[in-house]
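Archive transcription. Copying these from loose printouts into the bound notebook so they stop getting lost. Printout 1 of 2:
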Amino acid sequence: MVKDKPTNRISATFARLAKERRRALVGYLTAGDPDFDASLCILREAATSGLDVLELGVPFSDPTADGPVIQAAAARALQAGMTVARALELARRVRESSDVAIVLFSYYNPLLHFGLDRLASEAMAAGVDGLLVVDLPPEEAGELRDALAGKDLPLIRLVAPTTPPERMAEIARDAGGFLYLITRVGVTGAGTLDHARVGRLAKTLKGITPLPICLGFGISTAADVQQLAGLADGVVVGSALVKLAAEHAADGQGARLVAEKVRELRLALDAV
């Protein structure tokens, strides 16, 4: 008897949530901030407190899409010795205690330096479920696609608020897992959102692709979550979690407070 191929955790998560008429809570945290052990504690607490998808950010010295909170987290993590290999080790350690879907979030340079074939095999072994490479457009992703061939590691793609519909379609054809719809122009972090415009963008994208759509950038509070949740299949919260972890690195309360924040956001999301 041939066993069915296991379902990717990202796909399984969104399928389950759709049946339950619930939205996904996606949380970004920087690997290795403030150091390996503290980061592992924070990641484990977040993963078991209500996240559906954990975006594990590989720190990079030139994070052009990230705002000051995540830039500072990347600098601290690099100073503490975080690398792609150690980020994968964090993923593996989180996987030991949680079945949360894990997306490795990175810029292309550190992945290319690490080695794409090595990345594909070691990410699978660590329990990673997908990759999001911020600065790698579909036209330049051939080498990475080749390395991922035969691996159940979909490429999650970003769609900007300035992306025209025809380009949205090109991006969606090269994507897997879900699409990350950026809610505003600029870098990550809290900021004013035009909810009506976000709704129009999400509606356009939904008409182009069957992939789940998650909204990110500028989402930090329970009120943000409730206002936006009905527009898409999930929301992404990053800077608010990273900031909490940073503010309490010295007193050791980061993991507890990040977990509380995740539970607060989860309750707000499920109330929609």
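Printout 2 of 2:
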Amino acid sequence: MAVHYLEFERPIADLEAKIEQLSKLSETAGPGALDDELEALRARTRELRIEAYSNLDAWQKAQVSRHPERPHFVDYVAALIEDFQELRGDRKFADDQAILGGIGRFRGKPVVIMGHEKGRDTAGRVKHNFGYARPEGYRKTVRLMELAERFNLPVISLVDTAGAYPGMASEERSVAEAIARSTEKCLLLSTPNVTVITGEGMSGGAIGIAATSRVLILEHAIYSVISPEGANSILWRGARTPADAARAMKLTAQDLLKLKVVDRIIPEPPGGAHSDPEAAMAAVGDVLEGELKALEGLSAAELKAKRAERFYAIGRSGLN
């Protein structure tokens, strides 16, 4: 499978192309003939990757958050959840495959897990509507959270969406109301709930499943009320660029932590989550386990009070 490189990764791509060429030459040159050269190139590639990813600007982080090879919801479920049983449909209209969810065991304990799925290939993206959820997706999340309350299960939400689906059919079926109901259910849930923003978390499509006890974000993920492209189009009528908008919007994990929009940043492997998906998913699992354990002994009233406290605190600290 061809590797997808972002624009700022061009020097890394050039070095890895040289490594591939030398590796082929070494097969004919004899054992060990080019080992030193190959090792030097690999070391330089690692240095370039660390250097590039330690100095990303907001627009570059937005690009990384959308990288097609980052782990998706289905990957996290496969890596972290045992005995997963998907639950489909909203019991009102249809099943929305842009949001998946169900029950399973996380590190030996039963949980409800739900999240956006964008799909990987063309057929998958069409099936999952590129992660743009319709009203029935958010009515499904309410159903899942009601199930969690009934059986006293914690809820894990994984956010990765450019927003809710804005089409006519979605509006006709009251997408704003469905998102509001899902947000309300998150806030008033009587069991612990934790969100991880794994890629991009845009607009109400994200907040509909992210109004939780704890909101975590991967190091190179983004979270905002609108995409940089949308902000540039609506606010500046396209007079500037999405990169300008990204810088102005304070949508990076680091800015969001200062504003208390998120509670914790989960470090990614050097080169981003897409460079080592297994390590990235293991890190998410370890942090999730600790966060859920910290919420375990709280009563329903305490959980609701703490959620209210965290959301009222958003933006009070400001940015220096």
